[in-house]
Amino acid sequence: MDKALRSFTALMVLASISLAQNASAVTINLVYEFDGVEPVQTYATVDITQNGADLDFAINYVGNLGPNADIHEFYFNLTSPPDPVTGLAITASNATTTPYTVLGPNPSIAGGAGSSFDWGVNLGNGSANGNLQMATFTLSADQALSVGDLFETSSPNNTPPVNLAVHFQSTVTSPGSETIGGIVPVPAAVWLFSTGLLGLIGVARRKKTA
Predict the structure, then answer these.
(1) Above 50 in pLDDT, residue 18?
(2) CATH number at residue 102
(3) 84/179 same-domain check
(4) Which pTM was predicted?
(5) Which of 39, 67, 38 is closest to 172 using CA atoms?
(6) Are 207 and 166 in the same domain?
(7) β-sheet bridge partners, residue 70
(8) Alpha-carbon span 173 to 177, nearest angstrom
(9) Same structural domain for residues 77 and 174?
(10) What's the pLDDT score for residue 143?
């Protein structure tokens, strides 16, 4: 890798981290069915909002898995350098009967299709909280959490890497349950920034060749 490309890569990483850490809210569309059988389309959305040192989550099922699809578990990774996340807890939720519980990080969460996540939230098994198609909860930890902490990915066998996923039960698809993942959207500013840098690198290379 030449010097210009190394500089470009380093700047892209710094820009991505800066924008991610400064973001206060993000919406992730869950579009990738982990078995790779169902089409790529929006099955659910996950809204994440900064709430002081905590993170508010809202998971909404939007369709395509049948009328009785039930949100069962939520999977994600968290990075909070330089220290690992400790004391992760749910401080508020819309659970009606069975409290939502934190899963992980030891053991890690098997998301299916070869994927593995550090953390998860059990949102009730089957009908424990009714036919759950909307779930809200707040995550807190011993240290401050930020939206940017969710940018680490996991890699299912049949889809692109994903940042987080939801497991659904009682779907109309075979075998009656599905795990759907999504990618945290990269801010448009990063792509504009990268396009400009690529142009500068191209100009520099042409001048060097000349």
Answers:
(1) no
(2) 2.60.40
(3) yes
(4) 0.78
(5) 67
(6) no
(7) 169
(8) 7
(9) yes
(10) 92
Cα distances from 184 to residues 46, 127, 157, 198, in angstroms, run 10, 30, 19, 23
Q: How many domains does the chain have?
A: 2
- Please, are residues 54 and 139 in contact by the beta-carbon 8 Å criterion? yes
Structural domain containing residue 7: 1-23+187-210
Q: Kindly state the average pLDDT of the residues 95-102.
A: 94
Same domain? For 205 and 140 the reply is: no
Average pLDDT, the chain: 82
In angstroms, the Cα distances linking 131 to 82, 102, 128, 171, 178 are: 40, 20, 8, 11, 15
Q: Is the pLDDT of residue 81 over 80?
A: no
| 139 vs 150: CA distance, rounded Å | 12
CA angle, residues 195, 16, 155, in degrees to nearest 5: 105
- In this predicted structure, the answer to whether residue 12 has a pLDDT above a threshold of 80 is no
Instruction: Count CB atoms within 10 A of the CB of residue 137.
Output: 21
Whether residues 41 and 17 fall in one domain: no
Residue whose C-alpha is closest to residue 113's, from 56, 51, 167, 149: 167
Regarding whether 32 and 1 lie in a shared domain, the answer is no
